[in-house]
Design goal:
3-stranded antiparallel sheet, alpha/beta, 6-stranded mixed sheet, disordered C terminus, globular, Rossmann fold
Length: 251
């Protein structure tokens, strides 16, 4: 069994007298998609920062696999609306002006048509795809996505989650993301971690959906609205109209 990319053991974080994380334990394996869900203020982005070594915990242990390369997609991108910056220039800066990398990255995320567009003129979905392309510049072993479908309509959210699944399949990278879109993200993840400062429950989408702690946190109505697609990695097929992955079992 290969070494996990990330391991957290009994991690606690307290800042300014507030408990932000309490006794958090989890690990992330190579090629796995892990989604962190929870209500506002649950500590989801804080957990990402701790897991990536950007915030030192008050106690506990965080272990990252040596030599791991990380690509990060932020929750928001703040750009001065008067600052002229094209997509080509934005990505070429991340690629250290290796322009030959820019077009393949944009093509991979389905945004080749915005190459010469100003960042300020992009739609929500186009901007998220550009940010995703930027996160792929370093060919990461781990892709970290903080609210990757923010500012995107429901149809665009579904397409972006399908794209994230294809990227994992093609590149073999692990993906750790934060999301509020429970009914959509359940179709796009291998494992769910439900957080409310501590881990309320974790496991496959199907098992978490039926966990009493999950029901208590989000309510029975939210649970009933979930459309869950359970992916069976042992079932191989060439094409599935409802799923972009190579293997699935749609229920």
């Amino acid at each position: 069994m290969s070494e996990p990319l990330i391991q957290l053991n009994q991690v606690n974080l307290e800042l300014g007298g507030r408990v932000l994380l309490e006794n958090v334990n989890f690990e992330l394996g190579a090629g796995e998609i892990l989604t962190i869900i929870g209500p506002n203020g649950a500590g989801k982005t804080t957990l990402l920062r701790v897991a990536l070594g950007l915030q030192r915990p008050s106690s506990g242990q965080v272990k990252l696999q040596r030599g791991m390369t990380i690509g990060y997609m932020p929750q928001k991108l703040h750009i001065d609306p008067t600052f002229p910056l094209t997509v080509r220039r934005f990505l070429s800066l991340a690629c250290q002006n290796q322009l030959e990398k820019v077009l393949p990255l944009l093509a991979e995320v389905g945004a080749g048509h915005v190459l010469e567009s100003s960042l300020q003129t992009l739609s929500g979905g186009e901007l998220q795809r550009v940010l995703l392309a930027r996160a792929l510049v370093r060919e990461p072993n781990l892709l970290v996505l903080d609210e990757p479908v923010q500012g995107v309509d429901v149809h665009g959210q579904t397409e972006l989650y399908q794209l994230i699944g294809r990227i994992r399949d093609l590149r073999g990278c692990a993906i750790m993301m934060v999301s509020h879109d429970l009914h959509l993200v359940m179709a796009a993840t291998d494992r769910v971690l439900c957080l409310n400062r501590h881990i309320c429950c974790s496991g496959t989408p199907e098992s978490v959906k039926n966990d009493p702690a999950y029901v208590e946190l989000f309510g029975r109505q939210a649970v009933e609205q979930l459309a869950v697609y359970v992916h069976d990695q042992n079932h191989q097929h060439d094409h599935c109209a409802d799923c972009s992955r190579r293997s699935c079992n749609v229920r």
